[in-house]
Amino acid sequence: MLKRVEQLKWLYSSLAGVCLVFFLTLLSSKQPATESLCLLISSIFFAIAFPIYVAFATAEISILEVQPSDKKIQSLLGQRWVVILTQFVNLALTVAFTFLAFHLSYWIGLFMLITGLIVLLALRKFILQLEGKKPI
User: Fold this and answer.
1) What is the C-alpha separation between 11 and 4, in angstroms, rounded?
2) How far apart are CA 119 and CA 29, in angstroms?
3) Distance CA 115, CA 69 (A)
4) Would you tell me the crossing angle of helices 37-66 and 80-104 to the nearest 10 degrees?
5) How would DSSP label each residue in 63-108?
6) HSE-up of 115 (CA within 13 Å, CB side)?
7) Which tens digits make up the pLDDT trace of 28-42?
8) pLDDT tens digit string along 44-88?
9) Residue 132 carries which DSSP code?
10) Which distant-in-sequence residues (6+ apart) come within 8 Å of 108 by Cβ?
11) What pLDDT is attached to residue 95?
12) Which residues of 73-111 are buried (b: 16+ CB within 10 A; e: fewer)?
């Protein structure tokens, strides 16, 4: 289980880095975020995701330092609020990237949105099969 926590530490650190790179790129841009609604919405969702990913990475580092039992780790990471927050932040990052794509081009955003929906449906079916449930 500690190996999984180590992987999550690097994943969440990387995702926080992606958010930070967005803001550093925005700072070097000549266009203010307020001039484009899509860029503004994207910025808001990157701003929401950044501190959550930093907190997640910090939590994973704390788990690695304490090294609790596998059962304790599973009970901590499986708490309802942790699962909901994880799903929320992943959705926030997806929305941030989608609006960033729409800022770049309507067509890029549209293709990203359509591809994302197709993959989401396929992934949902895969997960249901993995859990032994019948897909709808």
Assistant:
1) 10
2) 32
3) 40
4) 150
5) HHHH---HHHHHHHHTSHHHHHHHHHHHHHHHHHHHHHHHHH-HHH
6) 9
7) 887 777 788 999 999
8) 999 999 999 999 999 999 999 999 999 999 999 999 999 999 999
9) T
10) 101, 102
11) 95
12) beeebeeeeeeeeeeebeebbbbbbbbbbbbeeeeebee
Nearest CA among 13, 14, 19, 16 for reference residue 64: 13
| Distance, CA of 64 to CA of 67 (rounded, Å) | 5
Going by the DSSP 8-state scheme, the letter that residue 33 receives in this structure is G
Question: What are the residue boundaries of the structural domains of the chain, listed by start?
Answer: 2-104, 105-136
Please tell me the predicted confidence (pLDDT) of residue 59.
94
For residue 47, the one-letter residue type is A
Q: Which two tokens stand for residue 1?
A: 């289980």
Structure tokens at 116: 């994302």
Q: What is the mean pLDDT of the chain?
A: 92
Scanning the structure block, which residue is given the tokens 């501190």? Answer: 51
